[in-house]
Amino acid sequence: MKGPWWQQRLCDYGFRLTNPRAMIIGILRNTEKHLSAEEIYIDAVKINPSIGLTTIYRTLDLFTQIGVVQKFDFGDGRARYELTNNPLKKDHHHHLVCVKCKTIIDYTDFVHEELELMNKTEKALSRKYRFNIYHHTVHFYGICSQCQREG
Q1: Is there a single domain that holds both residue 76 and residue 105?
Q2: What is the number of structural domains in the chain?
Q3: Who's near 22: CB < 8 A, 6+ residues apart?
Q4: CA distance 12 to 4
Q5: How many helices and strands in the chain, by DSSP H and E?
Q6: What does the alpha-carbon distance between residue 20 and residue 48 come to, in Å, rounded to a whole number?
Q7: Phi, psi at residue 32, to the nearest 5°?
Q8: How far apart are CA 10 and CA 13, in angstroms?
Q9: How confident is the model at residue 74 (pLDDT cuts 50, 70, 90)?
Q10: Which H helix or E strand runs over 107?
Q11: Of 40, 41, 42, 82, which residue is least crowded by CB atoms under 10 Å?
């Protein structure tokens, strides 16, 4: 089967591309934001009013398990999702999270240096604990410039 990488991933794991799955991929592909399941649902019902929130959650769980999306907890009480290979975003990036307004900033500055350090750390941890590490996430929490101005 030749198709988009995410479609191939579904096929590789024995899953079909259903309309709800394609719709959720489309929503995630067309945003630079880190959407919650509820935000995806709000966009999805505009396209297909009969879709249920349960379908959104199940699909996101499946996509997370097979590596199509990444699930994040930025401390705002909601899981947030991002397409693993979103053409609107940089390939590998990390996050700055404002603890006041909950803004999330993707950044790629110093990522190569961070990756070098993380790779060394991952190798040492893998060796010491005999643990296979598949990926990592880096989030820095603080106050954004807008919230700093507002005082």
Answers
A1: no
A2: 2
A3: none
A4: 12
A5: 6, 6
A6: 9
A7: -100, -5
A8: 5
A9: confident
A10: strand 104-107
A11: 42
Q: Which tens digit of pLDDT belongs to each residue from 95-136? A: 888 989 988 888 878 777 887 888 899 999 999 999 988 777
Give CA–CA dist 95/108, Å, rounded: 9
> Can you give the residue range of the structural domain that contains 137?
90-151
Query: How many angstroms from the chain centroid is the CA of residue 91?
Result: 12
Query: Domain end: 85, 100, 133, which one?
Result: 85
pTM score, two decimals?
A: 0.74
Q: Are strands 94-98 and 139-142 parallel, antiparallel or unpaired?
A: parallel
Distance CA 124, CA 87 (A): 32
Q: Could you tell me if 12 and 69 lie in one domain?
A: yes
Q: In this structure, are 96 and 81 located in the same domain?
A: no
Of 42, 65, 85, which marks where a domain is finished?
Answer: 85
Q: What is the C-alpha to C-alpha distance for residues 59 and 62, in angstroms, rounded to an integer? A: 5
The answer to whether the CB of 53 falls within 8 A of the CB of 36 is no
- Say whether both 79 and 120 belong to one domain: no
